[in-house]
Amino acid sequence: MAERIMVLLAAFGGILLYDWLTMKKMTKREKALYAVLCFICLYMGLDYAINKDWFDFMDLMMPVFGNLAKAIDDYLNVNA
């Protein structure tokens, strides 16, 4: 778990340092969107670091696109 936290700190540290230097040019709307995206990334990063079965992207997409993806897969599957 410590290795995962170090990876997250390095990744988010670099991104936030660069973005902090360029945030002065952003509008309030862009800053709000940036904050929402940072929150989502932090949530997903914690999910990665803690390695628990939290609600994630696949849990959201499977009910929406699951049947369509299965139909496409069945259509493209060639039984020789």
How would the blueprint of this fold be written?
Layout: H1 2-22, H2 28-50, H3 57-76
Transmembrane segments: 6-21, 33-50
Protein name: Putative membrane protein YeiH
Keywords: Membrane, Transmembrane, Transmembrane helix
Folded structure, characterized:
The mean pLDDT is 87. This protein has helices spanning 2-22, 28-50, 57-76. The longest helix is centred in the middle third of the chain and has 23 residues, at 28-50. It is extended, with a radius of gyration of 19 Å. The protein has 80 residues and is mainly alpha-helical. It has a domain at 2-55. The N and C termini lie far apart (45 Å). 80% of the residues lie in helices and 0% in strands. It contains three helices and no strands.
Kindly estimate the percentage of residues that lie in beta strands according to DSSP. Answer: under 5%
Note the overall shape.
extended
Class derived from helix and strand content: mainly alpha
What is the CA-atom radius of gyration, in angstroms?
A: 19 Å
State the distance separating the first and last CA atoms.
Answer: 45 Å
Mean pLDDT: 87
Low-confidence stretches: none
Helical run tally? 3
H-E string: HHH
Please tally the β strands and state the result: 0
Oligomer category: single chain
Largest sheet at a glance? none
Approximately how much helix is present in the residues? Answer: over 70%
